[in-house]
Design a protein that fits this description.
The chain has 546 residues and is mainly alpha-helical. It has helices spanning 2-18, 28-33, 37-50, 54-65, 67-78, 81-89, 101-125, 129-161, 164-172, 174-199, 209-221, 256-261, 264-279, 282-303, 309-346, 349-360, 375-387, 389-423, 425-436, 439-448, 454-465, 473-485, 489-501, 505-515, 519-529, 531-542, and strands spanning 202-204, 227-231, 240-243, 251-255.
């Protein structure tokens, strides 16, 4: 989860850059120099440890662990890395655009910084060369496991974006955009077990007493799976997980350290705990609440009157923060319910208590984490539930209601989304043809369906009346400027809107200047960026025809 959070933080950095929250500096040397900072931090951390300054050394260790997104923030917003990439490639990359090779180059420093930080951290945490290599390899695999789904997402969207018609449909038809999103999400779910088996170092759990006991428990509870796997972490992590949807895909993973630590009774209890997550449909609950939050926010923004980029970014960051808090709250209680399930299905509360003590270790004894209550709190809950059945029933009832509310909220949002997607479909189909410059087809669709908005229908008529040579983006801009000079700002705005639909970001900037309530500021910017447009706007203002 740590690397997943770092990747999300890197995406947030690009959102911040898109909001113009950046310096004007540009330094490729500085971007490269950030690669060497982790090794300086390790040297300082060693000196601090030798001096007994353990708190300061711990703070540096935390900075080192998060060096990937921290350094990427500096490189992006402080040293102008995206601007450098734009200068080299001629492509302006933003989070709202379609990914391509230039976008991959924009993200490359984050990956490099994260890998360098992993290497530096391994050199701090381990002493011997073999141990350093083993720790580095394990962490790199974890990072790649988190990064690969994002890379697949970028690759698939890049392929979709190669087709002008597919790109226009996804950009302008909300129904097809939703279909692409759902398809990518479904693909991620279906391929997750295979992905983890290849990015993690896994092998089948060999025959023996442990495998026999685990298979016996699965038969006892009716839990079906495809395979039991050993996750070879170099004995660095004690963990277990059930991954996949459906018996044909589902795999159960135990780390090597967990298998080495736990006696047979405790190992079966851990298996029961993981099965409990599946039996109580915790993943479905998380997905339902996540869908209700993010799709509900997207629906609210779509129905609101043209929110600004700042509002969109703040809403997205707020939703992520709310999800983070809500996920943690629900996750901690889901862990308690899985503990309860393990106790009830094995009939052995002491096995689960012992497993928690061994796996949690001293550091988790009295400290809650984002996803788990402290070991002491979980054990205290199990002991109360063993003595009083009402304790367990109360938690089960609470979790069942949270699950039902989440599913109901997700269904309501889905209905709202479906209604709005279908309601705007006719109008959006016309806008696809306008975006492709096929004005004959756009007018045909607009005149044959009364659900098309008047503004869209008028744009189709204007496009149809243009001569073929006037339909090119450069000519559309020229015609818009001439319309403004003639004192016809409405015609200018309509031509600029046609130009914006053709994917010209400059058209949106010109429209914003034309509609700005602070004309002096807009004019000042235009005088620097485009004197011809500034002159046209000043001419229109003099005639009082704005």
């Amino acid at each position: 989860m740590a690397y997943l959070a770092q990747i999300v933080a890197a995406a947030a950095v690009l959102l911040v850059y898109d909001l113009e929250l950046r310096l004007s500096a540009s330094s490729p040397t500085g971007v490269v120099a950030l690669l060497f900072v982790p090794y300086l931090l390790t040297a300082i951390a060693r000196r601090l440890v030798l001096r007994g300054a353990f708190r300061a050394a711990g703070a540096l260790h935390t900075l080192l662990a998060w060096w990937g997104p921290v350094a990427f923030l500096v490189a992006t917003c402080g040293l102008g890395w995206p601007a450098l990439v734009q200068d080299w490639t001629g492509v302006r990359n933003v989070m709202s655009g379609w990914p391509d090779g230039a976008f991959a180059l924009t993200l490359a420093p984050f990956v490099a910084y994260a890998l360098v930080a992993i290497d530096a951290t391994a050199r701090v945490d381990e002493v011997r060369g073999a141990e350093i290599a083993r720790s580095r390899s394990f962490q790199v695999r974890l990072f790649l496991a988190a990064l690969t789904p994002f890379a697949l997402f970028l690759g698939i969207t890049w392929l979709v974006g190669l087709s002008a018609r597919a790109r226009a449909n996804v950009e302008h038809v909300a129904l097809w955009s939703a279909a692409l999103t759902l398809s990518l999400g479904g693909l991620a779910v279906l391929t997750l077990p295979a992905l983890l088996r290849r990015t993690w170092d896994t092998v089948a759990l060999p025959p023996g007493r442990a495998r026999q006991a685990l298979e016996d428990f699965a038969r006892h509870t009716g839990f079906r799976f495809r395979e039991l796997l050993v996750w070879r972490t170099g004995h660095q992590m004690a963990n277990a997980a059930v991954v996949g949807v459906g018996a044909g895909q589902r795999v159960v993973v135990f780390s090597d350290l967990l298998l080495a630590q736990l006696p047979l009774r405790e190992l079966v209890a851990v298996m029961a705990h993981e099965v409990g997550h599946a039996a109580r449909h915790h993943v479905l609950t998380f997905i339902a609440w996540s869908a209700a939050l993010f799709l509900g926010l997207e629906l609210a923004l779509r129905l609101s009157p043209e929110p600004s980029e700042l509002v969109l970014a703040l809403a997205a960051l707020g939703a992520v923060a709310l999800w983070w808090l809500g996920f943690g709250w629900l996750s901690r209680r889901s862990e308690l319910e899985a503990d309860l399930y393990a106790m009830e299905t094995t009939g052995d509360v002491q096995a689960m208590v012992s497993a928690l003590e061994i796996v949690g270790g001293p550091h988790a004894r009295s400290k809650d984490s984002w996803r788990h209550f402290s070991t002491a709190r979980r054990i205290e809950f199990l002991q109360r539930a063993a003595q009083d059945e009402r304790v367990g029933r109360r938690l089960t009832r609470q979790m069942r209601w949270w699950s039902r509310i989440g599913v109901a909220a997700a269904l309501l949002v889905a209905l709202g989304q479906g209604y709005t997607l279908l309601d705007g479909f006719a109008d959006e189909r016309v806008r696809v043809e306008l975006a492709l410059g096929d004005y004959e087809r756009a007018d045909e669709l607009a005149t044959s369906d009364e659900r098309v908005l008047d503004g869209t229908r008028r744009l189709a008529q204007i496009g149809l009346m243009l001569e073929p040579q006037q339909r090119e983006p450069a000519e559309l801009e020229r015609a818009a400027r001439l319309a403004l000079e003639r004192g016809d700002p409405r015609r200018c705005a309509e031509l600029l809107e046609l130009l914006a639909l053709r994917g010209e970001p400059r058209a949106d900037e010109l429209l914003a200047a034309l509609e700005s309530s602070r004309l002096e500021d807009a004019l000042a910017e235009l005088r620097e960026s485009d004197p011809q447009w500034a002159s046209a706007l000043e001419s229109a203002l003099r005639t009082g025809s704005r």
